[in-house]
Structures are given as C-alpha cells and as structure tokens.
C-alpha cells in the first residue's frame, strides 16, 4: 500500500468515527466548547433538539409566585438530562405528541429569589437544601398533541393541591391515561416521578450532582 492510500485510509477511519458520533443525534453545542462538554455540563437544550415546545412559566408572571424570576426564557440542563429527555421525546413523537417544558435548571440565586417571595417548603424548595432543579436534573413538563394543544392532566402546572398527585384517584379515564403515558415513558428513560406533582421528573443519575449557580446569558 502506498503512503497515499494509507493516508486516505486513516482519513476515512477518522471521518467514519466522527460520523458515527453524529449519528447519536447529540451533536456538541459548538466546536469551540467541544473539548469541555461532558455529561454534567450545563447546555441549552435548543442547541441539541428542535423538537420541544416551551412555556417557561417563571420567565413570565403567569405562575403561582405572580413574579417573573428569570430574565429570559431558556431551558438549560445538564447534558445527561438533555440526552435522556431527547430519548423520551422520541418515544412521544412516535405517538404524535411532544414534550412541553414549564421549567428546567434553576440557578440557586433564582431559588433564593423564589424562597423570598414564598417561604413555604410545601411550595418552594428551601435554598439551604436545594432542589434537583438547582442540580440541573429536574424538569417540569407536560405533553402537547400535533396541534400544540396540551393533553388534559387534570390540573394546571403548579397546582398545589391533592388533585396534582399521582396517587389521587378521582380523575377522568382520559386524565389517568395521559398521566400514565407521561410517567411510563419518562421512567423508562431514566427519570423518577414525584408523587405530589404530575409535571415534575428527576433524572435518577442527577440526584447526587452539586447544586449550582451557573447562569445563562440573555440577549
Ligand atoms: Zn419541578
């Protein structure tokens, strides 16, 4: 084999490795950051998938705090959370649905701000302990159909009452079916449900990650 062909072979091997990597559907956020991105890096999910719907409630005053606590509506999560939820969303999309986000990673300073407004551990996690949202492993979500309409989950997001619980039984068949679908696919993809909130899911492998105060830039 001539040097030329050896080089060509090497080059092909290199590019086939690169293309295999891209086949995972999880491209690096940017070439510049490629070397420093790992599973616990905070990333903007929009850089990894165009297939989600967003209604970031805390970037508006349409939430139980009646206060806008984020400067802009972005969904940042640790990369491993992004990978897991992209897999879950692919399952929902085959069934004609998509995940809609209400909240994602929440920097600790934002948690403190929320705690100042509502200092009640039944509604807001005490920033002294931190929540999985502060660890980049929790998502608040629902499902929308092909027209963008939310599936009926029995209560709105952040409804603080027994009706929002997975254990509450006085719900229509339709609501039970919708919650069951959300829970089944999320738990099959590495997430735990949270008994009192049908919309909240924790990535199991993120429970021991550190609380963070990393912030994203707003335009
Ligand atoms: Zn939550």
From TrEMBL:
GO molecular function, one term: metallopeptidase activity
Gene3D superfamilies, per database record: 3.30.1380.10
The keyword Ribonucleoprotein belongs to this UniProt entry's keyword annotation: no
Enzyme class: hydrolase
Record-linked Pfam families: Peptidase_M15
Keyword Transport assigned: no
Catalytic activity: D-alanyl-D-alanine + H2O = 2 D-alanine
Keywords of this entry: Cell wall biogenesis/degradation, Dipeptidase, Hydrolase, Metal-binding, Metalloprotease, Protease, Signal, Zinc
Catalytic residue list: 197
InterPro entries given in the database record: A_A_dipeptidase (IPR000755), Zn_M74/Hedgehog-like (IPR009045)
Cofactor note: Binds 1 zinc ion per subunit.
Binding positions (Zn(2+)): 133, 140, 200
Annotated site location: Transition state stabilizer: 106
EC number: 3.4.13.22
Family matches, as SUPFAM superfamilies: Hedgehog/DD-peptidase (SSF55166)
One Gene Ontology biological process: proteolysis
Cofactor: Zn(2+)
Superkingdom of origin: Bacteria
Signal peptide: 1-21
Annotated family: Belongs to the peptidase M15D family.
Record function comment: Catalyzes hydrolysis of the D-alanyl-D-alanine dipeptide.
Protein name: D-alanyl-D-alanine dipeptidase
Originating species: Flavobacterium fluvii
